[in-house]
Amino acid sequence: MAVPFLTLFFGFIFLSAIAEASQCSIKGLPLVRNISELPQDNYGRGGLSHITVAGSVLHGMKEVEVWLQTFAPRSRTPIHRHSCEEVFVVLKGSGTLYLASGSHEKHPGKPQEFKIYSNSTFHIPVNDAHQVWNSNEDEDLQMLVIISRPPVKYEETKDWFMPHTASKLKFPYYWDEHCFEAPPKDEL
């Protein structure tokens, strides 16, 4: 009778350790992971599937963060900018990138439009407002996204001519909220 109890007890301890590792700690996290087994969520944004493949908050990355994002047909990101560089690799599907390189002015301004497609790549400079649309009606748009300087500090704006001072800052971002710990306050 003691053997099944001990098996259950140690099994529970093992599963608890795995749950802790997969949530907010790199402790016990395997070096090689199956992407299909990583947590995914839409974070309240319909049409989005987000997986943090390797992140600063979730996995202790210091210089880069990697996401796998899938957008359902006709879905899009909000118009936004952030304090990091961003590189996209389109794995499947097609869509449109809107990029306002005048983001260092008072407002983003009229964006340039670029077609994106499977096996294409593009990068977003620091603080340039952008938006990605899955303009395809029949197929998901799936991209690997690499950002520098994680965790991301994100500003969302309602339109291309709204002043930056009126944009909404979101930090920590949705997928970092449950694990983010503010650094200790400097006493000086």
Query: What is the count of DSSP helices, taking H or I runs of 4+ residues?
Result: 2
The major sheet is characterized as: 5 strands, antiparallel
The assembly state of the depicted protein chains is single chain
Query: What sequence of helices (H) and strands (E) makes up the elements?
Result: HEHEEEEEEEEEE
Q: Name the beta content range.
A: 25-35%
Spans where pLDDT lies below 50 across 5 or more residues: 5-22
Distance between the termini: 60 Å
Helix/strand/pairing category: alpha+beta
The overall pLDDT, averaged over residues, is 79
The total strand number stands at 11
**Radius of gyration, in angstroms, nearest whole number:** 20 Å
Overall form: globular
Helical content class: 10-25%
Strand order in space, largest sheet: 1-2-9-4-7
What's this model, at a glance?
This protein is α+β, with helices and mostly antiparallel strands and 188 residues long.
Can you walk through the features of this model?
The chain has 188 residues and is an alpha+beta fold. Helix content is 14%, strand content 34%. A five-stranded antiparallel beta sheet has the order 1-2-9-4-7. A three-stranded antiparallel beta sheet has the order 3-10-11, with no helix packed on it. The radius of gyration is 20 Å and the shape is globular. About 10% of the residues have low confidence.
